[in-house]
Amino acid sequence: MFMSPNLNRAHDAISLRTAKGRKLLLKKIWQYKWIYLIMLLPGLAVTVLFRYLPLPGIALAFKTFKPVFGKTGLFGFLTASPWVGFTHFTRLFKESAFWVATGNTLYISLLKLIFGFPFPVILAIMINEMTLKKYKRVLQTVYTFPHFLSWVVLSGIILNLFGDSGVIKKVAVLFDPALQDGWNVLYNTAYFRTLLILSDMWKEGGWGTILYLAAITGIDPALNEAATIDGANRMQRILHITLPSIMDLVVIMFILQVGNMMNSNFDQIFNLYSAPVYKVADVIDTYVYRITFQSSTVMDYGFSTAVGLFKNVINFALLLAANYTSKAAGGDGIM
Amino acid sequence: MSKEKTLPAPRVRKENRINRFGVFDFILVTLLSILGLMIVYPFYNTILVSIVPQAEYVRQPFMLWPSSITWECYEFVFDSPLLLNSMWNSAKLTFVGTIYNMVLTVLMAYAFTKPIPGRNFFRFLMVFTMYFGGGLVPTYLLYKGLGLVGNFWVMVLPSGISVTYMLIVSSNMSSLPAELEESAQIDGATDVSILFRIILPLTLPILATFTLYYAVERWNEWYSAMLYLKDYEMWPLQLTLRQIISSANFISTQAMTGDIRPPTYGEGIKMACIVVTVFPLMALYPFLQRYFLTGLTLGAVKG
Fold first, then answer.
1. Residue B260 to chain A, least CA–CA distance (Å)
2. Do residues B58 and B184 share a domain?
């Protein structure tokens, strides 16, 4: 029923430029491709409905939000809200909390780039060098496991560990009884970013090794054998064979991570932070969330939308640039 | 023979033999083991805190082995209607959501392997969503307009397809030899039966991987519930857990209805909730590790 005898020929002959071609196209769709379009439809419908229909709402960034009541259609809130031009943006650029959030976003991303990025590379090389095969598998199971847990769970564990009754404090007190009073790690601006970086490395470090390990497995064993015969030791082989072989991948991963600079880890920060550390931990995503849903002043959806739009535009540009660069470097890009 | 014996093998070669377990290996194994312990201990500690009596938790600085065990916290967790309800919500969400995700993903992935008209445009539509979105407020207002706020389906419907997963599945399907499909077609199979009887069985390992990924994401869902569901009876386990962790009184005030005794040992209850939340994953992970770990490398070789 869905078959066509001239599967290949029909596909080749179609051109949209001529009326005949268009007719042929429709015929083709009707004859045997409609089933594939139907397969595509549910996914497309969901994407358009939930990913594209919100886009017109971005206009709120240039409007003052007026709530609407009753049946006004999907975009009733848009027509009800008057245009205000760039008012939100001029206010935004004067808002110190916004600049703090932007600064934190970039600074935390930078710290993750400096400390978090090399960690899986080094770890992958170490795992690769390990000779006890069975034990290696067990360790890899352990290393990759935290990746699959939510930050809700992990924040629960971290808040307990570092909290006032947690094991870290108890052990620290054994060494220095003075720490008993005024123990404050979680709500301390001096430690919070360190906590973010370390917990991120703890969670994602093992998972990050998988790509690198796959690349290392692809290295021709003859290279290592030849180097060994020539008298290269372990360290020399790592530096002159393993590392150069995965360098392309490392560069691409680095570019992609730079492209993600504006995307701070909302889940992580939102579950770990608290008012005392907003100064060092508040990022754009958490800032938008708070001014939208937890604001003590009058809700101003237009302003929140403006902040979100500002972030999204820069993020979009960064991602595109990163994608382009990584493709130029021979990688796959994000897609 | 004696001549060969007098010639010693080059020293340098002997020292670098791969199979020898030397100082280097010792340091390596020690470092990697320490890292392993650093990852395992927090989980172990969590379990310990949840099973020891409060007095012991307060007294013991560094627990390696519990001197006495009590199941009080777990009894409380499994007696609490709120938590049981959340578990049920999460199970429902994971089950329904994963099926929904996989159906959409597989159908779209397969359709993209075919020369359907407008394929590149449709693909662009999908990929664009990875780069740009409406943002918090426009999305919230739209979902509100769609009647999804306060609705269980707000956790299920919007996150239909992970574009990355879909593209990986699609490229794997298109890497299957075309002869398979052609011969099935000659034997009279319809497009639908080709998908179900040839393509799906052959891509089963990849599908298993992404089913697991989707299931884990669903099980870990809390954000959309926090945004759109005010009624805590609809919350998934993760959001209830988040509330229990962040506000100490939540479980004793909001959730306590009627005859259940109020919890005395807050940290124990929290840790017990964490253990219950993580348990399904922890139990399955070692056995399904093969599937859990392949997805990322599949992504790396996609064409």
1. 24
2. no
The answer to whether residues A206 and A144 touch, using CB atoms and an 8 Å cutoff, is yes
Q: Determine, yes or no, domain membership for B10.
A: no
Q: Does B33 share its domain with B107?
A: no
Whole-angstrom Cα distance, residue A162 to residue A184?
A: 9
Average pLDDT over residues A279-304: 85
Is pLDDT larger for residue B259 or for residue A169? A169
Q: Which domains does chain A have, with CATH numbers?
A: 1-53 (no CATH), 55-85 (no CATH), 87-328 (1.10.3720.10)
pLDDT tens-digit map of B30-78 = 999 999 999 999 999 999 988 888 878 877 767 778 888 888 888 888 8
- Is residue A131 less than 8 Å (CB to CB) from chain B? yes
- What residues contact residue B99 under an 8 Å CB cut-off, 6+ apart? none
Q: What is the pLDDT of residue A14?
A: 55
pLDDT computed for residue A41 by the predictor? 93
Q: Same structural domain for residues B129 and B202? A: yes
Give CA angle at B166 (B164, B167), nearest 5°: 65
- Binary contact (B166, A231; C-beta < 8 A): no
Split at pLDDT 50, 70, 90, the class of A19 is confident
- pLDDT at residue A184 in the model: 85
Residue B49 lies in a domain: yes
Please list every residue in chain A whose beta carbon sits closer than 8 Å to the beta carbon of residue B222. Answer: 150, 152
pLDDT of residue A25: 64
**Counted domains in chain B:** 2
**Binding-face residues of A in 143-202 toward B, CB within 8 A:** 143-146, 148-150, 152-153, 155-161, 165, 167, 170-171, 173-174, 202
Nearest CA in chain B to A299: B137
In a domain, B3, yes or no: no
Same domain, B39 and B79: no
Asked whether the predicted pLDDT for residue B82 surpasses 90, the reply is no
Q: Could you report the per-residue pLDDT of A143-159, keeping only the tens digit for each?
A: 999 999 999 999 999 99
Q: CA A29 to CA A1: how far, in whole Å?
A: 13
Q: Among candidates A47, A52, A54, which has minimal Cα distance to A74? A: A54
CB-closest option in B32, B129, B137 to A126: B32
Interchain contact A121–B (C-beta under 8 A): no
Provide the pLDDT for residue A278.
92
Beta-carbon separation of A308 and B136 below 8 A: yes
Conformational region of residue A330, where left means phi above 0, alpha means psi within -120 to 50, and beta covers everything else: left
Within a domain: B270: yes
Residue B158 and residue B52 in one domain: no
Q: Is pLDDT larger for residue B256 or for residue B109?
A: B109
Contact: B190, A1; criterion CB under 8 Å: yes
* Statement to judge: residues B111 and B187 lie in one domain: yes
**Chain B neighbors of A7, CB-CB under 8 A:** 185
d(CA B169, CA B166): 5
Question: Poorest-confidence range of A53-62, A205-214, B12-21?
Answer: B12-21
- Residues B61 and B190 occupy one common structural domain: no
Min Cα separation A81/chain B (Å): 13
* Same-domain pairing of B54 and B85: no
Under a CB-based contact definition with an 8 Å cutoff, are residues B220 and A154 in contact? no
3-class SS of residue A83:
strand
Domain span at residue B198 reads 73-300
Most confident range, picked from B45-49, B104-108, B263-267: B104-108
Could you tell me the CA-to-CA distances from B126 to A260, B123, B132 in Å, in that order?
A: 19, 5, 11
